[in-house]
Amino acid sequence: MPIDWVVHANQYYQGQGFPPYMWSVFEDSPWTLFEKTLDQSRIALLSSAGISRDDQVPFDPWALNDLSFRRIPVDTPFERLKLHHNFFDHRDALKDFNCVFPVQRLRELEQAGFIGSLAPEAITLGMGRLYKREALQEQTVPRIVEVLKAEGADAVLLVAG
Amino acid sequence: MAQVRPPRGVFLDFPLGRTCGRPNNLEEQTNILKDALQALVRIKTPGQMVDLPYEWGRPFTIQDYVREQKEMLEEKGEPMQEWLPKK
What angle do CA A145, A160, A118 make, to 5 degrees? Predict the structure, then answer.
C-alpha cells in the first residue's frame, strides 16, 4: 500500500503549528507528442536527491527555498559526488548513487543502444521544501530548460529523491 | 505525484531513497529505468502514471520512514532540525 506522503506531511507540519500547506494540484498535464523512438533520442537526467560534485557548493540538507541547481557531467566518478539531503534515508544511495542518480545505468543503456544518447550533463536539485513556487517556475525552471536545450535533450527523466 | 500530474510518470512502490532500485542491484535498476524510458514513448494520455511491478519485499510505513530518518541522522551525528513556525 503506497505511503500517502501528502497526509503525512500535513500531519507532521500542522502538528508543529504550521498552517495548512497549499499543495500544487494540477487538473491537467502539459503535453507534447513525443515522436521519436528511444534509440533516436537524447535523454537528460534530472535528480532531486541533493547531489553535488566535490568542487561545487554543496546543498544544505536543512534548506528552505534553495532554488539552485547543479550541473554534473555524467562521466563524473562517483567518488567525487556528495549527497546532502536529510529527508529520505540516503544510506542506500551512499552505497550506490544509482539508486537516486542512475547515470551509470543510463550510460550502459546508451552503450547498448536502448537510448540514442545520454545528455552530457545531468541536473540536480536539492532539498525540497520549496515554497516559492513562482520563483521556481519563473526563475529556476527556465534556466534548467536552457541547459537542457543547449545539450540537445529530447526528453528529461525526472528522478525524485 | 498524482496531484502534480507530470506528463508521463511511473510509480515504484519502494521506500524513499531507492527511486531507481536497490543499491548495486544492476538488473533491477536497469529494468526500472527501461520501464520508465519506455513510458516516454508508450504513454499517450497526458498525466498518466503507470505502476511498476517491482516489490520491495516487505511492508514499509510512515513509521519506518520516521525511524530510518532518525537512525540515519544518529549515525551521522546530526540532530533532527527543530524549527517552529514564527508567530
Answer: 50
- What is the per-residue pLDDT for B85? 53
The secondary structure of chain A as a DSSP string is ----HHHHHHHHHHHTTPPPP-----SS-------S-GGG-EEEEEE-S-EEETTSPPPPTT-SS---EEEEETT--GGGEEE---SS--HHHHH-GGGT--HHHHHHHHHTTSSSEE-SEEEEE-------HHHIIIIIHHHHHHHHHHTT-SEEEEE--
Write down the ipTM of this complex: 0.89
Hey, is the C-beta of A21 within 8 angstroms of any chain B C-beta?
no
Q: What are phi and psi of B20, to 5 degrees?
A: -110, 20
CB-based contact (8 Å) between A38 and chain B? Answer: yes
**In the structure, what pLDDT confidence band is assigned to residue A1 with cuts at 50, 70 and 90?**
low
Chain center to CA of B3: 16
The predicted model scores a pTM of 0.90
* Cα gap A156→A158, rounded to integer Å: 6
How would you classify residue A15: left for phi > 0, otherwise alpha for psi between -120 and 50, otherwise beta?
alpha
**Chain B residues closer than 8 Å to A35 by CB:** none
C-alpha A33: how far from chain center: 22
Q: Any CB–CB contact under 8 A between A17 and chain B? A: yes
Residue with cell 560534485: A53
Model pLDDT, residue A151: 96
Domain residue limits, chain B: 8-76
Q: What DSSP designation does B7 have?
A: S
